[in-house]
Amino acid sequence: MDVLQQQRSDMVARMAPLTKLPVFWALEGKPVIVAGGSDAAAWKAELLAACGATVRVYAEHLSETFEKLITRGAEHPQGGFIHHAHSWNDGIFSGSAIAIADCEDEEQAKAFFGAARAAGVPVNVIDKPAFCQFQFGSIVNRSPVVVSISTDGAAPILAQAIRRRIETLLPLSLKSWANLAQSMREKINERLQPGGQRRAFWERFVDRAFRDKPDAISEVELLGDALRIAATPSRIGHVTLVGAGPGDSELLTLKAVRALQAADVILFDDLVSDEVLELARREAKRMLVGKRGGRQSCRQEDINDMMVKFAKAGKRVVRLKSGDPMVFGRAGEEIANLQEQGIPVDVVPGITAASAMASRLGVSLTHRDHAQGVRFVTGHSRKGSLPDNLDWSSLADRNMTTIYYMAGRTAGEIAKRLVDAGMTADMPTAIVSSLTRYNEQRWCGALRDLEQAVAVIGVDEPILIGVGTVFDNIAAGALTVTSRIRSVSG
After folding, report:
1. CA–CA separation, 441 vs 432, rounded Å?
2. Which of 115, 127, 141, 110 lies closest to 40 in space, CA to CA?
3. Distance CA 417, CA 396 (A)
């Protein structure tokens, strides 16, 4: 691994910048302050009491909502309310865990904020970000599973919408499963060794938690799983070849995300985007293994050896490839090598670049009025030039759509060979560079102009070239590089 590869491996291992640190605060049995008697203050007070805090309310008058909340305070078996029928003062803060206020104006907010800080108590003034040391997020409650969403105050409605989405994804039974996990943890730790054994158990546990509802025999069955795992000799690891798609992380399959979040080691290609890697398990070791056309890369033999080494050490290895691993990804060589070594391997397909190109351009690659088939062709061989064994007569068939992968540096030669084989120089041709990424570029024109178009777009980013009549009617609005390309024929 060269210096540049190591730098990127180090970079993607770190978390992206956070506007705020998400923290879950234990408040059971601790006194907290709420100043103000409004409905907004009542909501915060109810939240604090639900966490088991003793809520000291300072307000001369309470809203109807707040009065009802305090009246039924017995519903909070751990927390409770103490109402002081007067305004707050500087002497109330001592010993409090946090302080919250609903203030009418900036002067009151500033005074409360200053008094709380002087007493060393973390403070939040409702709806006044300048006087908040912490913020409340939108909450999904499956306690002890708690999910909180924050937009740093920029878009509360967005946070609420995200919460609604998450609510639909997390079954209500998750609360019971989490409580069961809490009660079983010590028993599992006694029965299973740290590392692979415990990890295997909890992965099976999670699979059940999202599939079934717990019942009276769930714990018995799970403990049986633990005994079987404990009796199993040290297991060999596993390798999963995962398609990362063209770059946009939203195009990953759910199965791909699950594989990334279960990985111990991730060996990723240079074309894999940071957004995709951001979805991986934080603790996973991430290693850049190159594989970029025209640039220095890891040898395939070295990649094979790394997969074998980590898998034999009992690790879950993800080999993360751009696009689909089974399309120009040398997956066949990797699978064969792993099978020879007796290492289990499976494949999670991804969206191949040709499919993403078609969707971005709004083109059907097999439009029945234009093409009766589609072909994917590599644009370079092991030597970096065009493969010697391509059938150019077949590739020049105008009734087919052909997509050339990794063809930026051989574009001129492709155009020449096609014309020499009988394809007309005005055949519609499309280019997409950095497909689905922020710097994506698109061009469509005649085959004769292909080499010049590639020269304008550049070959520093991955390029896909499509040739066929299906590209004839691409809307001008879909293009970023337009008719500035001048025909070589004049």
Report:
1. 6
2. 127
3. 9
> What does residue 141 show for φ and ψ, rounded to 5 degrees?
-105, 105
Query: Which 8-state DSSP code applies to residue 96?
Result: -
How does pLDDT run across 171-216, given as a tens digit for each residue? 889 899 999 999 999 999 999 888 778 888 888 898 888 878 888 8
Beta bridge partners of residue 268, listed in sequence order: 288, 320
Cis amide prior to 144 (ω within 30 degrees): yes
Mean pLDDT within 268-291: 88
| DSSP, residue by residue, 141-170 | EETTEEEEE--TTS-HHHHHHHHHHHHHHS
Secondary structure letter of residue 235 according to DSSP: P
Could you tell me the CA-to-CA distances from 373 to 118, 186, 264, 401 in Å, in that order?
Answer: 74, 60, 41, 6
Residues 348, 351, 354: CA angle, nearest 5 degrees: 140
Spot the catalytic one: 102, 269, 324, 397: 269
The C-alpha atoms of residue 83 and residue 217 are separated, in whole angstroms, by 46
Q: Is the Cα dihedral 190, 191, 196, 199 positive or negative?
A: negative
Catalytic site residue from 44, 128, 291, 315:
291
Digit-coded pLDDT (tens) for 324-343 = 999 988 899 999 999 999 99
Q: Where are the alpha helices (DSSP H) in 278-391?
A: 300-312, 331-340, 353-361
Residue matched to tokens 């028993």: 187
Whole-prediction pTM value?
0.68
% pLDDT > 70, the chain:
91
Both tokens of residue 153?
């105050």
Catalytic residue flag (residue 305): no
The question of whether 391 is a catalytic residue gets the answer: no
The label of the residue with tokens 């292909």 reads 450
